[in-house]
């Protein structure tokens, strides 16, 4: 679709928090858009669910609840999908791409599950399908991985990519809150949804890890490939031990490209205070990348919110608009040209922090050491605290061990009478 005028017309699907932010930001930047992009950008239709709802500051004549008003309008060249969810977003994006319209999306759920299908459709139609806002809000990471760092063989991408959980863990660490109190505070401030499951169980971060790993390692990773574990079991006691070990606890998305396959997971980790990610506080996000040429690079900023996310969406829109002006759309489509296997998470190696309640009697530590030795688990550190006449709290830090070896050892330990409880199992970076 060649742009023959100096105005590029667009349709917006969804007018929620992010959609409203995109609408406002485009209006705010309208005066300089022609000089910046080479064309004016105009939203001519906005698809909404409820036509009766009052939307202050939005021209009501732009609103429609009929998809055909957009898909059948040949003047609309860019579709901005900000509805979220799988359907009807997937169908609408595919129809738009098949109709030769370019698409910008922030839909991490959809892209993490069906990204290949969408990118293939974009390539077939010589269209742009851009989704910078799907990961880490306003932080540029998709474009850097696809373009700025394209000369690297990237071996690791780790990040704090969920602001809700990072806020909760920050409050637990700095203000001595327990998990329930910190979650209530996050909900009060609007960081957590009424149903926070996707955040606190690691599902939101898992979808973002799938997207980043696919791009970084040039091989398809979908959400179901990502091991996910949330922060609901983290206690104030674990936080105190982390402080004692000069560390913090963060919910990390971890993706590694190894000789035996791609490792992808989301889980709480003890992170030493000297690591750059350890200083990422409150609702901020950060992504840490290791490449063979660039070495280490970190991207930091606001990971969510009306205008940070709108910033990434509008950046993509401007990129598509420039491509339209110079008739070079579809330059960068799917970069997953490899077929690297996904490593079973049982075979992934990690260090572990273990906290357990044991009988305070001779031979318990020797028993634990024997079980660990039988399952190829090497102990790096032991701390005993809170001993009473009957019971003691034991903290064991392991060396690097395969997940399934530790799992087998813990299963055996839990059948031993002197092991009262395994209170915490947290990985250590």
TrEMBL record:
Q: GO molecular function: any one?
A: homoserine dehydrogenase activity
Q: Which cofactor does it need?
A: a metal cation
Highest taxon of the source?
Bacteria
InterPro entries per UniProt: ACT-like_dom_sf, ACT_dom, Asp/hSer_DH_NAD-bd, HDH, HDH_cat, HDH_CS, NAD(P)-bd_dom_sf
Residues holding L-homoserine: 193
Statement: the UniProt record of this protein carries the keyword Oxidoreductase: yes
Enumerate the residues binding NADP(+). Answer: 13-20
Please list the reactions this protein catalyses: L-homoserine + NADP(+) = L-aspartate 4-semialdehyde + NADPH + H(+)
Question: Could you identify this protein by its name?
Answer: Homoserine dehydrogenase
Q: Which UniProt keywords apply?
A: Amino-acid biosynthesis, Metal-binding, Methionine biosynthesis, NAD, NADP, Oxidoreductase, Sodium, Threonine biosynthesis
Pathway membership = Amino-acid biosynthesis; L-threonine biosynthesis; L-threonine from L-aspartate: step 3/5; Amino-acid biosynthesis; L-methionine biosynthesis via de novo pathway; L-homoserine from L-aspartate: step 3/3
